[in-house]
Amino acid sequence: MVVTVLLAVLLAGCVELPEQEENLLENGSFQNPILVFDVDSTDTSNTNNNWIFGAYEGAKGNHPGYLTHNHNQVQIHQQPVNIENGKSYTLSFKAWADEPRSIRVFVGSTVGNPDWNNISSELDSVKLTTTATTLVYNFTVSKNIVDPKVSFEFGGATGTVYVTNIRLVEKK
User: Fold this and answer.
1) pTM, whole model, 2 decimals?
2) What is the pLDDT of residue 43?
């Protein structure tokens, strides 16, 4: 009886269900294959609403476990991402590794120095453990960002990293 009454109320439109916030990133759970960046190619300016994997400058061989000294030399990224000056966002994702380590998560411009500054210094060293953990970061964009992107950068250490359920939503 209670279920029938609740269903009738919902169907009548008297109760509004909360809307699911729009994820500004596509393929956040990697249900579709990601793209692989050719090391010799220079154009990754549009990832066609998907993630692209790349090994850059000194990280030859497109191998996710390749050790480099710079986090950004082995990464997945998505661009352009629709983030705007003056707006607040929440970035969340589930991540873990085969052993404790750090990764860098970058939200910012692809134009280059000095605009390679991360939108949040909290994201410069994200500590991962062997336990799958959902991590949540809130930030407000405080400047115009040219050609914004989101990247997960793994080049600072060897090992296996798992990332899934990536969401970027505007806070209303």
Assistant:
1) 0.76
2) 55
